[in-house]
Specification:
By secondary structure, this protein is an all-alpha fold. It has a domain of about 35 residues. About 60% of the residues lie in helices and about 0% in strands. It contains four helices and no strands. The protein is elongated, with a radius of gyration of 22 Å. The relative contact order is 0.05.
């Protein structure tokens, strides 16, 4: 949800109730939300996060070594 969008009253009430939960109740709620198949939130494993960070650092050291999406498309279309 965009933070600049006003929160409907029913969501404000729900958030207040969640904030009032005991820590163990919040943990239970979090477990339920994390295992809910309809949830659109995904946890990225730490190993994959580290891999992405390494790739970002490599790019930052030598950005000219990498292609933009447009350059890649051109190469693919030209058969290079």
């Amino acid at each position: 949800m965009n933070r600049s969008t006003p929160t409907p009253d029913h969501l404000k009430q729900l958030l207040e109730k969640i904030q009032a939960l005991a820590p163990d109740e919040k943990e239970t709620l979090l477990d339920i939300l994390e295992t809910d198949p309809t949830s659109k939130t995904y946890t990225i494993p730490e190993a994959q996060q580290m891999m992405v960070m390494e790739r970002i650092r490599a790019y930052e050291k030598q950005p000219d070594k990498y292609l933009t999406w447009e350059q890649l498309e051109q190469q693919l279309q030209s058969g290079k």
